[in-house]
Amino acid sequence: MENIVKKKADFKSVLFKVLPIVCLIGGICLVIYVLSLLGQGSSFFVFWGTSANQAAADLANNAVRSTTNFNWTFILIFAVIIYIYASELKNKNYKGIVASLSLYGVHWLYEIANAIIKSASGYALWTVSPSSTSFILLIGVSWELSMMFSIAGLAMSKLLPADPKMKILGMNNRVVFAIGNAAFFALFEIFLAGTPAFIWTYNWWGAIPVFVTTYIPFFLAAFLMHDAKPKTQKIFLGVTWGVVALLLIILIPLGII
C-alpha cells in the first residue's frame, strides 16, 4: 500500500514538473501557427516549405564542398572564433565552453542526419544556397552558419541566471531559457526561409517542427551540460563528438553526405 501511495505521489510530482513545460511549448507553437496564418502570402516571412523550392535545392546539392564561391571572409570568421574561444579559456569560463561545444556537437549530429535524409529522399529538410556562402560544409550548413553555431551555446549561456536551481513560473530556469532561445532562433529562421539563402522543400517542415525538434534539443544540451558534473560533461562531449567524427569519416568518402 505504501508503495502505491509513493508511486502516485511520484507521478503527481513528475506531472507538475512536466505540465508547465508542455504548456509553454504548446503555447509558443500556437503563437507560431497563428502568425503563419496571418503571414500567408508574405514574401518576407516563410513558415513552411514548398516543393517550388526544389529547383533551388538542386543547385545547392551540386555545390556541396565546392570552392567556387570561396573568399577570404572564411579565414576572418575562423580567426574571430579562435579569438573568442581563446579569450574564454584564458578567463577560465569552462562552463561556457562546455555549453558551446555541447550545442555545436548536437548541431553536427542534426546536420549529418539532414544530409542523410537528402541522400535517401533527394531533398534535405533544410538546404543552404551556394550563392549565400563562401563554402557549403554539408547540404544544410554553410561555413558561416557553422561558425555561428560554434559559439551560440557560449553566447546564450552568458544570459543564464547564476543559480541553476532557480524557478521561473515553476519551471527550472535552464529549461525555460532553452525553450525561449529555441523560440527566438525558430522565429528568426522564418525570416531566413524567406530569403534565397535558406531553403525548405517539404510542406510539412517549417517553423514549428524546427522549434520543437531542432532548437529545443540544441539549447537543452547547452544549458544542461553547462551545470553538469565534470565527469558527465566529459562523457557527453566525448560520445557526441566521437560519433560526429566517426560518421563524417565514414559517410563523406562514401558520398552519402
Textual characterization of the structure:
This protein is mainly alpha-helical. The chain has one domain. The protein is built from 8 helices and 6 strands, in the order ααααβββαββαβαα. It has a two-stranded antiparallel ribbon. Strands 2-3 form a two-stranded antiparallel ribbon. A hairpin with a 2-residue loop joins strand 2 and strand 3. Helix 3 runs parallel beside helix 5, helix 4 packs antiparallel against helix 5 and helix 4 runs parallel beside helix 8. The longest helix is centred in the first third of the chain and has 37 residues.
Quick take:
The chain is mainly alpha-helical. Helix content is 65%, strand content 5%. The strands form 3 sheets. It has a two-stranded antiparallel ribbon.
Number of discrete domains: 1
The fraction of residues in strands falls at: 5-15%
Please tell me how large the radius of gyration is: 20 Å
Low-confidence sequence ranges = none
Cα distance spanning the termini = 56 Å
**Mean pLDDT rating:** 94
Number of helices: 8
Give the topology string: H per helix, E per strand: HHHHEEEHEEHEHH
Task: Label the structural class.
Answer: mainly alpha
- Oligomeric state, counting identical vs distinct chains: single chain
Question: What is the share of helical residues?
Answer: 55-70%
> Which of globular, elongated, flat, extended, rod-shaped describes the shape?
globular
Adjacency order of strands in the biggest sheet: 1-6
Number of strands: 6
Sheet with the most strands, sense and barrel status: 2 strands, antiparallel
